[in-house]
Structure formats: structure tokens, C-alpha cells
User: Fold Phosphoribosyl-ATP pyrophosphohydrolase from Geobacillus subterraneus.
Amino acid sequence: MPIYNKLVRDRIPAIIEQAGKTFTTRILDAEEYRKELQKKAFEELEEYVQSATDEAALEELADVLEIIRALAACHGASIEQVEQIRTKKAEERGGFREKIFLVEVHDE
Assistant:
């Protein structure tokens, strides 16, 4: 019997049940939930980094985005509010489209 002890998507218990298996779950409190989302973010980002194909990378990025949506909600915001902040920062500091790699800065 595998023990997972990790946050899973909402429909996973139903999928396990449809497979004819039994399981144990519990509902996390707000603090536990935020911490588990943070752990899940690292897990999904690591899976993205290790993706071997564009298709796999996009699947993992979709998972990362789902985690970001949930984390935004934990902080009392929507993904639209996060996008507004991202847009403002991009206007002020730029994005990453130009592929600029800063090597060093010289003090004069």
C-alpha cells in the first residue's frame, strides 16, 4: 500500500474510486494548504525542468499555472490580479523576451 502524503487535484479521489481502490484523505487547514501548495509548486517546476519534449513541458506548465491560481486564492487574490501585477512589472522592468543574460556590472 503506497503512502503519498501529498496534495492532489480535487478529482483524484473519484478517479481512484473508479479504479476500484480505497484510499484515505483528509482536508488541510489554511496554513497546511498553503505549505502543501508551495511544495507542489516546486514539484511541478522540477517536472517542467526535466521535461524531454515541448508537449511534456506544456503539460507541466499547465500544472504550474494551476498551482499559481490556487496560491493566488490563498493570498486573497485572483489570477487576474496576479496578471495585473505581472503586466505592471513588465512595463516598468520589461519581460524576458529579449533573452538578455547579465554577466556583470562594473562599479565606476
Q: What stands out?
A: The helical segments are 12-18, 30-49, 54-74, 79-93. Residues 29-80 form one domain. The chain has a mean pLDDT of 97.
